[in-house]
Amino acid sequence: MTDSPRIPKSILIVSLLMMLFGLAEVATAFSHHFFGITTTETALATYSSALIGVLYILAGLVILPMKKWGVLLAIVFLVADILGRLALVANGLYPLNGIENTFGIIAGTAIAVIFAIYIASRRAVFR
User: Fold this and answer.
1) Which pairs from 30-38 meet CB under 8 Å and 24+ separation?
2) What is the model's pTM?
3) Which of 17, 39, 121, 123 is most buried, with most CB under 10 Å away?
4) Contact assessment for residue 91 and residue 62, using Cβ atoms and an 8 Å cutoff
5) What's the whole-number mean pLDDT along residues 30-45?
6) Where are the domains of the chain?
7) d(C-alpha 102, C-alpha 26), whole Å
8) Which residue in 108, 104, 42 sits closest to 96, CA to CA?
9) Which value, to the nearest 10 degrees, does the dihedral of the CA atoms of residues 34, 73, 114, 86 take?
């Protein structure tokens, strides 16, 4: 018999969504296009956006073991993701030159915030 904790479906779904969104962000970083959203094609923008996507993926991965340290790490990764998005906008590396881009950065950042709040609110189910 194993001592591995059961992952609640909601945590599993959030984890999978974070990994999926992170992969989409990494793909967008290198293609510079995603559902009408465009990004700056500089090396700094590319690698910064890819790093933000990797942080999102890591946030999804670290909660799967259902450990308290995973909650802390996931929140740290998500906060870094959020701050990274804001830094990209502030430095002009993620242009807000159209409704698609503006909506994309606002919605994407809001979703990351919601995930962080949700994970923090469910910390009691982690061991």
Assistant:
1) 34/104, 35/100, 35/104, 36/100, 37/100, 37/101, 37/104, 38/95, 38/100, 38/101
2) 0.86
3) 39
4) no
5) 69
6) 96-127
7) 19
8) 104
9) -50
pLDDT (mean) for 93-109: 82
Tokens of 26: 């990494």
Q: Are 66 and 125 in contact (CB under 8 A)?
A: yes
Angle ∠(70,44,34) on CA atoms, nearest 5: 75
Q: How many CB atoms within 10 Å of residue 60? A: 25
Q: Taking residues 4-10, what's their average pLDDT?
A: 83
Over residues 66-82, the mean pLDDT reads: 96
Question: Partners of 34 in the beta sheet?
Answer: 37
Average the pLDDT over 42-68 and give the result: 92
